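Posting this for the archive.
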Amino acid sequence: MRFVIPIMMAACCFAQEPPGVVVEEAVAPVYPAAAVTGRISGSVIVTVHVSDRGAVTNATVVDGNALLRQASLDAARLWRFQAHAAADLKLIFSFRFMPKNTPESQLGSVFRPPYTVETRKITPEPVTHYARRF
C-alpha cells in the first residue's frame, strides 16, 4: 500500500527551494518488512531531477541504510511537482518507530515541507525464540 499526500501550497512558503518548484504530490515510502523485522530506522537522502513538466526523471540515493533505500527510490520516482524550469532537488525520507501506545492518529506518514516525508510504524515486539528440548 502506498500513501499519496496531495500538497497544495503557495510558492512563497518554500524559502529553501528554487523559485516555483512546488510539490503537487508527495508519495510516502512503504516501510520495508525486513527493516521492520530488523528494527531499522533512519533517513534516506535521495536526489531527483525534475523535468520542466514537473515529473521526476532521475532518482539517486545519496545516503541511507541499504534496507530503506529501494522503498525511498520507489517513492521518490512518484513525486510530482508544479511545471517549471528543470531542477535538481534533495528529498529526505525518514523511517521512524513510535512507542507501542502511540495513538493511531500519529501513525502513518507525515509531510514536512519542503521535501521531507516521515513514515511511522509502531515499534515491533521483540521476538523471543525458545530452544525446544527433545
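The two ends are 43 Å apart (CA to CA). Strands lie at 3-6, 23-28, 42-50, 56-63, 80-81, 87-98, 108-112, 116-122.
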